[in-house]
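Hi C.,

You asked whether I'd gotten around to modeling the 142-residue construct. I have! Everything is below, sequence then structure, no commentary in between.
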Amino acid sequence: MAEDFGGAGNGAGTDAGAGQGAADAMRDAAERARAGFSDHVLDPARRAGEALRASGQKAADNGATIGLKIIEQAEQNSREAFEAMREAAQAKDLSEVMRIQGDYLREQGQRAMNQAREMGELIMQFGRDAVSPMRSGNDKAD
């Protein structure tokens, strides 16, 4: 009878060891799954969020820069207009007023084209700058 108990005890010990091994294997599999999820889902999502935040900050900064550039251009245009009015007020005759007005209109047209080109280039550069953190974030994920 003692042999029966000894035999049963050895079998139970083996079953417990097998159960522990299965639990360890499941724990290892769960840890690998968690690491894989972190590597393939959480980290890329975190990088994408950081890139979006950086792009949003750049967009806000660039919006302020564009606003200041518009004010600078408006100031320049106003100075030029007042200068032309002063010259016209000091003109000796109507032909001189017409020449001053023609010169002002020609210069203002050229200035407007230059200002529009400058704003377009500024906006394009800001667009590239705003997208670059997102591109570099995607490069890291690949």
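If it helps when you're writing up: Helices lie at 2-89, 94-141.

Thanks,
B.
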